[in-house]
Every structure is written in C-alpha cells, then in structure tokens.
Specification:
By secondary structure, this protein is an alpha/beta fold. The protein has 18 helices and 22 strands. The chain has helices spanning 33-38, 40-46, 81-93, 112-119, 185-201, 248-260, 278-285, 317-330, 349-352, 361-373, 403-414, 419-429, 432-435, 466-470, 476-489, 491-495, 533-536, 538-541; strands at 14-17, 50-53, 57-58, 70-74, 97-102, 131-132, 159-162, 167-170, 205-208, 268-272, 294-296, 305-306, 308-312, 338-339, 378-382, 497-501, 508-515, 518-525, 531-532, 544-548, 557-558, 563-567. The strands form six sheets. It has an eight-stranded parallel sheet with strand order 11-10-9-5-2-1-15-14. A five-stranded antiparallel sheet has the order 16-17-18-22-20. It has a three-stranded antiparallel sheet with strand order 6-8-7, with no helix packed on it. It is globular. The model has no long low-confidence stretch (mean pLDDT 97). Bound molecules: 1-O-alpha-D-glucopyranosyl-D-fructose (TEU). Keywords: Glycosidase, Hydrolase. Residues 16-435 form the Glycosyl hydrolase family 13 catalytic domain.
C-alpha cells in the first residue's frame, strides 16, 4: 500500500468517549452531550482524527446504553438529538469525524420491537427475536428446561423464561438484552434503514458491538445446538454456535451493499469481535470483500486470564509479543489492525500492563502508549488513558455499578465462591475501573460534575488530572499529543512494515517499521529494571532519537519503562 493509495484511517487516531463518565453539564452526576461539547477543545488539542461515541441512544441503561430501546433518539440522560447534531457539526468544524456505536446483536427488552414480539406468539415481530419452547420433555421454567445449555455473558442461562407465552427468549448478554434474529430479513432491513438514517445525519461510521455474534448456527428445523459443558457451572459454552456463525460474512456484505455503497471511502467501520482469529480477521477486513475496515480482537487482553476474566494471572511479555506479532504478520498484506489497550470494558492499562505505583506510573503509561502507537494499525485511545488514569481502589461491593460485575458476584457466591476472593478479582478486573469519571482537575469531583457523580471519582485525581498535565511537557498527556502528531507526520508510522525483534526477551519489546528504505526502530523496556541496550541491539545505540518518553541520557542503557523511537542512520 503506498501512502497515496492508503485509506485515511491508516493515518488516524481514534478517541473513545464513554459519555456517562466524560463530562456532566447539568449537575445530575451523569456525563452528557453538553459536557462533550464543553470539552471539545481537549480532543482537538490532542489532535485525534475520530471520536467513537459509546451509546447515547434511548435506553433503560441496564448496561449503560448497550441496551437500546430507540435507535433513532438520544436518551434524555445524555441530552437531545439537536445536541448530537451540534456535536457532529462542532467536531467536523475541527476536522474530527464522529463514529457511532452500533449495537444490533440485541436490543433492550423495552424496545418496541421486543415489547411487540413478547405480546403474543402470533405477533408480527415474534420472529424478530429467538423464541423457543422448553427442552423436549421438560416443564417450562424448571432448571434445565432451557432450550440450550448456553451460558450468557452476564447472567446464568442465556435463556429467559416468559411465563405469559410459556416460551424462552435468547439473550447472550443480560436478560434485558434480547438477541435479534438476523435470519429474519425484516430485521436486517430495519437495521440497515436505521444505519442509513444516521449516515444521512452526518455520522462518519460505526463501531459495531459484538458484530461477529449476529449469525447463530440454527438448524433447518429451527433448533439450536448445546455447547460443551463449562467447568464448575451448570451451563455450556455456546460460542461455537454463535461466534463467527455460518451467515456472518453474508450479513456483513449485505450490510455493506445496503448501507455503505457509494460512501464507503469517507467512513470508518470497525467490528468488535470477541474470539476472532487473525485468519478470520483477514476475511473480515480484506477490502475486496467489502465487510469492515478493521476489527477489535481480544487475544492480547486475555493473556493474563486463567480461563475467564475473573481469574487474572501475571502476563508474560513473551506471550504478549507472540500474540501482537502474530496479528501484525497475519494482517500485513491483507486487512488492517486496530490497536488498543484500554476501552470501557477493560481495567486500566497502566494498572494492568504497566506499573501504577508513584515511581513508575508516568513512565509506564508513556511507555505503553509509545508501544501501542508505533505498531502498524489504527490506535484507539480511551478517555483518561491520555493522562494515565488508573484502576479504582475498590474496597466494597456498594462501590460497583456494572451489571457484568454485580451479576458475576451474585452468581459466583451462589455457586460457592468466597465473597472476598470474588471482590478481589472485581477490584482488578471490573469494567468499572474504566468507568470512573474523567479527571479534569484537582477539585472535589475532578471537574466532572457539580452534583454527585453516578460512580465515585478516583481519589488520585488531586494529582492525576488534565489541568495538571496541560502545560507540562513531560506529562502523559503531552506524550500522547506527540504520538498522535508523529503518526500524522511520518508515513513510516502509518504504513511501514512491521518486524519483531528479540521475540524471546521478557523485558524489552523491540521492532522495526520500514517503508521505502526508511526505517524506524522502536525499543521499549516493559520492566522496572534497566536493560543493556548496547548488548541487546547495538544498532540502537547510535541511532537518532525521533521520540522518547524520558529525557535523553546514556544511549546504551534502557532505563525502567523507557521507550525510544529511533531512526538508525541509513
Ligand atoms: O462487549 C462485548 C463483550 O465481549 C463483553 O462481554 C466483554 O467481553 C466484556 O465486557 C469483558 O468484560 C460489548 C460492549 O463493549 C460491552 O460494553 C457490552 O456490555 C456488551 O457488548 C453487550 O452489548
């Protein structure tokens, strides 16, 4: 791909806004569109090209907006449609595109489509969802009578019994998030019409929530298969029957024809795809197949998990290199990577992969950022990451808000787990770590709200906040600004080939990026111990520093958490 042929998003950096926690403008303690409008200069100063806005649609907020009851309106908690139009215009004025979250694997159970579907077995939208009778020979409502043994992501069985009709509906996530039946062409057309409506309103693309789960492996008789049993749980793993399902590519290609034809070049289409492999991602992101531009894969955020997210274990850097290296190689000639450490579902990267102790927090945050932004792919920065926000010091169940975390606690304790151990895992892994309010300044609510925040502000905000970093050239914020600018200025960063160096080294993560004879060498010390760079990569010592996260010192030694982007002389 030459710089002339490359799509615009190869040079772009995306910033994710989780509106509930970004900025409150009306004092109700919940972030809103008015708040984003107030903080828009922060995004422009950072230099990002795209804002991905997590859901602001009408929603009962069972999963903070990922349960949508009206796709074509804004939830009053976040503001109005007119404010969203204002936001689109304000971003466009600054050359920033807006990508909306598209949550169409499921709706809210309060969406009129589902309310209608549930009203009777003869309802015109009955078949828009997955309704099934109890398992053959079982009494409806009894444990084990669910149509399949699938476990839901957020709450026990993936089937909810509906007494009125004697049938169950499928929900891969919470019971308030019934799955849409994409087999039904009316469902697909309704979704496409809604998407066209948003594009006509001026949005610049979609981040498609769990989009690789929309095709389920349904048999000709309408049956769905059981999954392999899950250890220690009375459920099975349904993923083989709904992850990258039989019609997924057909649906995405149809969506492309129906929605994106004629306007694809200006859009950004990214599919969130748990469980996707590099081989599958090549298919999803091959431009010739017209599906999506890039995917969010999950491999690198699962390397420190033992079985599931509630059983964290230490990450081996070698595993991280092997994984990211495989993704770089897998999409080198076809397709494209998205790059992220943080989002609204992951604990904070500086606490998880870095070192958030006072000594190394700034250095590890900037080191991780350098590493991420210098890979080949489109980097995604999650709100607060640009100032090194860290996990919250949770001590009590009452501090949590997230449906996944709270449901997990109930389930785990009901199945005999020790409540303190469950809480300890939640403290490390809960999504609420990512959802505490953005720390704008050192005032009591960090400048987020004049009211009572919906979730507590991290007590470290007195020291770690945007205001404190704004004019500080050595800050995490200033470093992010430099990384964004570097991608814009240097075509090697955007398009250079990637070659991993020192694959077996457990502390130093090093690689080159090459384009038309021009090379960048990236060396990052992912540890708290100095590393002998002169021995490991002698060519690095004499190379010119393009960008580093520490003031220049002995070029032969890589200090703890030091990161350097180098340009060896040709
Ligand atoms: O997340 C999809 C997903 O796979 C999550 O279950 C993820 O694995 C989990 O949050 C990790 O703890 C998407 C959204 O990003 C998430 O916020 C939603 O809750 C979910 O879909 C349902 O819409």
């Amino acid at each position: 791909m030459t710089p002339e042929q490359a799509p615009w998003w190869t040079r772009a950096v995306v910033y994710q806004v989780y509106p509930r926690s970004f900025q409150d403008s009306d004092g109700d303690g919940v972030g809103d569109l008015g708040g984003i409008l107030q903080r828009i200069d922060h995004l422009a100063d950072l230099g990002v090209d795209v804002v991905w806005l997590s859901p602001v649609y009408r929603s009962p907020q069972a999963d903070n907006g990922y349960d949508i009851s009206d796709y074509q309106d804004v939830d009053p908690a976040f503001g109005t449609l007119a404010q969203l139009d204002e936001l689109i215009a304000a971003l466009h004025d600054r050359g920033i595109r807006l990508v909306m979250d598209l949550v169409v694997n499921h709706t809210s159970d309060e969406h009129p489509w589902f309310v209608e579907s549930r009203s009777s077995t003869d309802s015109p939208t009955r078949d828009w969802y997955w309704w099934r009778p109890p398992r053959e020979g079982m009494t409806a409502g009894q444990p084990g009578a669910e149509p399949t043994n699938w476990h839901s992501h957020f709450s026990g069985s993936a089937w909810q019994y509906d007494e009125a009709s004697g049938e169950y509906y499928l929900h891969l996530f919470d019971r308030k998030q019934p799955d849409l039946n994409w087999e039904n062409p009316e469902v697909r057309q309704a979704v496409y019409a809604m998407m066209r409506w948003w594009l006509d309103r001026g949005v610049d693309g979609f981040r498609m929530d769990v989009i690789n789960m929309i095709s389920k492996a349904v048999g000709p008789d309408g049956s769905l298969p059981d999954g392999p049993p899950l250890p220690g749980l009375p459920y099975g793993d349904g993923t083989p029957h709904f992850s990258n399902g039989p019609r997924i590519h057909e649906y995405l290609q149809e969506m492309h024809r129906e929605v994106f034809d004629g306007r694809r070049e200006s859009l950004l289409l990214v599919g969130e795809m748990p469980g996707v492999t590099p081989e599958q991602a090549r298919l999803y992101t091959d431009p010739a197949r017209a599906e999506v531009d890039m995917v969010f894969q999950f491999e690198h955020v699962q390397l420190d998990l033992d079985g599931d997210k509630w059983h964290p274990r230490p990450l081996r850097m070698r595993d991280l290199k092997a994984s990211l290296g495989r993704w770089q190689a897998g999409l080198a000639d076809v397709g494209w990577n998205s790059l992220y450490w943080d989002n609204h579902d992951q604990p904070r990267a500086v606490s998880r992969f870095g070192d958030d102790s006072p000594r190394f927090r700034r250095d590890s945050a900037t080191c991780l950022a350098t590493l991420l932004h210098l890979h080949r792919g489109t980097p995604y920065v999650y709100q607060g990451e640009e100032i090194g926000m860290a996990n919250f010091p949770f001590t009590d169940l009452a501090q949590f808000r997230d449906v996944e975390s709270l449901n997990h606690h109930v389930q785990a304790v009901a199945h005999g787990a020790d409540a303190d151990e469950v809480l300890a895992a939640m403290r490390r892994m809960s999504r609420d770590n990512a959802r505490t309010p953005v720390q704008w300044d050192g005032s009591p609510n960090a400048g987020f709200t004049t009211g009572t925040p919906w979730i507590a502000v991290n007590p470290d905000h007195a020291e770690w906040n945007v205001a404190a970093q704004l004019e500080e050239p050595a800050s995490v914020l200033a470093h992010h600004r430099r990384l964004v600018a570097l991608r814009h200025e240097d075509p090697v960063v955007a398009l250079g080939d990637f070659t991993m160096l020192l694959p077996d080294h457990d502390e130093v993560y090093a690689f080159t990026r090459c384009l038309d004879g021009d090379t960048l060498l990236v060396v990052c010390n992912l540890s708290g111990t100095a590393q002998p760079l002169a021995d490991l990569l002698p060519e690095a010592v004499a190379a010119g520093v393009v960008l580093g996260n520490l003031a220049e010192d002995d070029p032969a030694v890589l200090r703890p958490w030091e990161a350097r982007v180098l340009r060896p002389s040709r």
